[in-house]
Design a protein that fits this description.
By secondary structure, this protein is of the alpha/beta class. It has helices at residues 5-14, 19-27, 31-39, 51-80, 92-95, 101-119, 179-202, 234-261, 281-284, 288-294, 304-310, 316-323, 331-353, and strands at 89-91, 127-129, 133-136, 145-148, 152-155, 162-171, 212-218, 229-232. It is globular. Bound molecules: iron/sulfur cluster (SF4).
Length: 354
Amino acid sequence: MKFSGASGLSRIALNPECAWQTVMLRSSKSEPEFYEQVTGEVFPKEYGERLSARRRGSKFERNAFDHQAAKLRAVMAERLGVAAEDIWVRNLEDDEPGGHESNRIRRSNLTRAILSDRLEGKRTPEILIQPQLTLTVHGLARSERLFIAPDVLYLDSGSGRYRPADLKSFVVRDNQVAPGDLERSRLQLAIQSLALHEVLSVLADTRPQEHIGALVFATPYGLAPHAPQEESLDAPVHLVRRAIAAIGHHHALIEGLKSKDGVKRESLLLQELPNHYQDRCVSACALAGECKKRQQNRAAVLGDAAVEVLGPNMDVGRAAQLLAGATPRDQREREIAALLQELAQPFETLRRAA
Ligand code: SF4
């Protein structure tokens, strides 16, 4: 899997301080390939979406989209305000199949034509499967346009607007989803909503932007679609905008270093670029092991909570000395020593009582 598009941008939204991810996104390589380029070694374990997860995702999509999206129509009819059997479905994969750039450009043109018809008041599909949108991100290496592909655009009956919907094949009961999965899913939906509004603004849509989308999870009963869970996306849209700004900032840093050092391969500049190791890196990024090693004895090796208490650059050995009663060397150390003593107090009381 390439580190690209909505998934790459959503990862940067969760760690915008790390310029390494921008280098990865600009490289157009998969994470294991990028790991190999950086370390000179083959990535040591399976990474990313497992084959079984991909199979489950494909099966869920087939379940939802087969027979003119019969199962999807059934769960979306209420939201669309149209009886399930009367919902107009159009699948752009039928018009223009394929994953090459040329296919995406043609699907993107078809999507624009449909959105334009809608703005002119013509009847358009209530469910548009596999539309293709684009989002401008300054600071990408080759093109400033990211292709963004929601699974579905649906026509919300209340507002008369298209909204993005993403199918998530996690099996959930009563739409209860793990917070980490929900965070990433909302970010991806926010990216789709921003891309939709960018296309609409090119088409001279003057309505104020509304960032709302739907997640469609899988039921435990044969991977059938749940009723859509509509999400207000203002907070994740803010994070995505911050990520786009961070990419522009990192781009300026990278280009500055390239012209100063005369280096062309950006992965050779990593040691001079900011890197922000945090707890979520372990499950999110192929470079987590490398980045953790770079922290040496700093607080980040103990986790985000330790960084919060000690600050990112505190040596954990020195922190242990302060906890054991060493004399602080300055005001900062005095504060940390007091805080550590306070945090240790309950354990000390327990120890005495034992
Ligand atoms: S593991 Fe390293 S490269 Fe990946 S996001 Fe974390 S700090 Fe950045």
